[in-house]
Amino acid sequence: MTPKKVKILFLKNIDRPFIENDLKILTKYFEVKVVHSSFKKESIRSNIQCIYNIFKGVIWADVTYSWFADYHAFFANVFLKIFRKKSIIVIGGFEVAKVPEIEYGSMLYPRSARRVKYLLNNTNKLLAVSEFNKKEILKYTDSKNICLVYNGVDYTKLNPKNKIKNLSSIKNDIVITVCGIDKYTVKRKGLETFIKSAKELPEVRFIVIGKWMDNSIDYLRSIATNNVEFTGFVSENELTEWYLKAKVYCQLSLYESFGMALAESMCFECVPVVSNNAALPEVVGNVGFLVPYGDEEATAEAIKKALKSNKGKEARERIKNTFSLDRRENELLKVIKEVIDDEL
C-alpha cells in the first residue's frame, strides 16, 4: 500500500491552527477526507448527521486520525471495530485532566471519563503532545500504544530570517500573555497572577491578548493597575506584532498539556516566564524562568530578570531544535507507517 493510496479520515470537532498543521502534513502524503463533527445536546438531527458522516468516512478510509478523544472519535471507533480498521487519536490534554479546583478535565465527570477510558484502551495509536501529557494518559491505561509526538511550530513562517535579522533591536519592555478570557481561564491560565504582578513593575507594559468571552473581563479590569492593557480579539498579523515587540511572554497556568502560544512566542525571541506546572517546564527547558503557580511576587521578580536577560535567541533555538513542525511531520509519518504496516 503506497502512501498516496492510503486513505485517512481526518476527524476534528474544532478548528485550531495546530490541527490544521497536522491536516496539511497528512494531505502532502496521503489521500485525506475531513469530517468536522460538533455534537450538541440540543440538536438531535445534527448529531445524527455527524454520526452518518463519520460512518461513511470510516467505510471509505483505511485509517482514522482524530484530534481529541471526544464523541467524534468514539463513534468512529465503534464503526472501526465493525469494519476492522485502524485508528490514531491525538490526546490534547483536557480528556485526561482532572483538576477540580478549576473545574477542568473530562475525568471530573463519570460519563465523559468512561468514554475517554474506552478510547484510551481501544485505539491503535495514542499520540501524546508532551511527556507530561503521556504521564497523564498512563493514569488511565496501561496501553503500550502511546507515542510521544511533540506539537510542532513553524518557526520559519512565524519569523523568517530575511524579514527581521535582529529581533532584539525592536524589543520593548512589554510583557504579554495570550488566551481567551472567561471564568475558567482566569484561574487556569493564571490571569489573576499576571495582572497582580504588574503592580510591582509600574514602568512595564503588561498586555493580555485574547477574546473576551464573558463578563470575567470586568473583574480583571477591576484588579488591574494602569500599566495593564486588554486587547480583546486580535488578528494573526496583530498577534505577530505583539510577539515582535514584547521582551517577555508569561504562561502562568495551573494546567497545560503543551502551550502553543508559549512556543510561538519563543520563536520571536520572547523570554518565557512560566509556572512550574504540567508541561510548561518541559517546553521551556533552561531558556526561561519558572515560578510557583499563583505567586505574584515571585512572578514579578522573574519578569524583572527576564527583561534583563539575553535568553531570547536561546528560546528561539529551543523551538527550532525540539518543537519544529518538520520534526512533528517526520514523527507523524513514522507513526502512520507503523499503523499501516500492522494492517498489511
Features:
44% helix; 344 residues; 15 helices; 12 strands; 18% strand
Through-space gap between termini: 8 Å
Low-confidence region ranges: none
How many individual helices? 15
Quaternary: single chain
Give me the side-by-side strand order of the main sheet. 2-1-3-4-5-6
Number of domains: 2
Range of strand content:
15-25%
CATH class of the largest domain: Alpha Beta
**In angstroms, what is the radius of gyration?**
21 Å
Main sheet specs: 6 strands, parallel
What would you note in describing this structure?
This protein has 344 residues and is of the alpha/beta class. The chain folds into two domains: 170 residues, Rossmann fold, CATH 3.40.50.2000; 168 residues, Rossmann fold (3-Layer(aba) Sandwich), CATH 3.40.50. The chain has a six-stranded parallel sheet, with helices on both faces. Strands 9-8-7-10-11-12 form a six-stranded parallel sheet, sandwiched between helices. Helix 1 links the parallel strand 1 and strand 2. Helix 3 crosses helix 4. It is globular, with a radius of gyration of 21 Å. 42% of the residues are buried.
